[in-house]
Amino acid sequence: MSLALPPAAGAVAAAAPGRPSASLTLPPLGNLDAYISAVNRIPLLSAEEERDCAQRWRLHQDLEAAGRLVMSHLRLVVAISRQYLGYGLPHADLIQEGNIGLMKAVKRFDPAQGVRLVSYAVHWIKAEIHEFILKNWRMVKVATTKAQRKLFFNLRALKRGLKADAGDEDAGRGRLSEAEIDIVARELDVRREDVIEMETRLSGTDVALDPQPGDDGEELSGPIAYLADYRHEPTAVLEARERERLSSEGIEHALAQLDSRSRHIVTARWLQVNDDGSGGATLQELADAYGVSAERIRQIEAAALKKLRQALEAYA
């Protein structure tokens, strides 16, 4: 990923007296190591210079002054972003998000409060990095409430500390005991239920719904195969309606095309159920009723079913 300095820094036209302006007007950098090396060479502002730049920005919207404030604190963003490398996100992305937080801090910084910008900006830098991590750590956001955010960024560290104190060689990986859950909840001022839920979320992994290629190149089945509900898919709905229409109106229409004997045989054999729940009449039962052989009933049935299929196809 290409790393560039914040836009506000590009507005800097001159450096502080006695300092070369080139140190504040750096080109975009595509290499992370080169970027970090460059921002570490940018001179820091003294308390007086920082206060002067902040007042010029607040009173006159001086972009040059804002640029100097931003540029002189880029190394702070790099330092803070290193604390979040354990979440598996690119360092360059963390720095870029932290730079956004730094610019927000400069925009709101009031030197009259009696604090240095470095102290004020830490909150804004961390806030932007936190939001970026929460949005990108997993496909599904794992923390939305204040308590969940607090647990997300502190639970693993506390867990490792508790396991280490207990002499657990596999510190941080095992589940928290009931007593440890109480300790974490008390330490972070959250509910026990929140601790249990967050531990479960952090121990889980993302599962792709769609089929994924296996090691041998063949596509493996994914959850979408058994989670998808096709009952309300438009084509399935239309097919169901058509089957329902054919099973009621269509069959009634087709039966009307048969003579009375054929209609009775088909109805008795396929559309009626005995009192005990068994199937319809047998060939021999119908043969006895009509005084013919069972083979003759079978022939009549076969001819009637053929006519029914033809009538249903015409009706459909």
CATH-derived architecture of the largest domain: Up-down Bundle
Helix content: 55-70%
Which structural category do the helix and sheet elements fall into? mainly alpha
Order of helices and strands: HHHHHHHHHHHHHH
The overall average pLDDT, rounded, is: 80
* CATH topology category name of the largest domain: Four Helix Bundle (Hemerythrin (Met), subunit A)
Number of strands: 0
Q: What integer value in Å does the Rg equal? A: 38 Å
| Poorly predicted ranges | 8-24
**Major pleated sheet:** none
Provide structural commentary.
- With 316 residues, the protein is an all-alpha fold.
- It has three domains: 130 residues, Four Helix Bundle (Hemerythrin (Met), subunit A); 58 residues; 73 residues, Orthogonal Bundle (Arc Repressor Mutant, subunit A), CATH 1.10.10.10.
- The protein has 14 helices and no strands.
- It starts with 31 loop residues before the first helix and ends with a helix.
List keywords for this structure.
single chain; Arc Repressor Mutant, subunit A; 0% strand; 316 residues; Four Helix Bundle (Hemerythrin (Met), subunit A); elongated; mainly alpha
Helix and strand arrangement:
Blueprint: H1 32-40, H2 47-60, H3 63-71, H4 74-81, H5 91-108, H6 117-136, H7 146-165, H8 178-188, H9 192-203, H10 224-227, H11 234-255, H12 260-271, H13 283-290, H14 294-315
Helix pairs in contact: 2-3, 4-5, 4-6, 5-6, 7-9, 8-9, 11-14, 12-14, 13-14
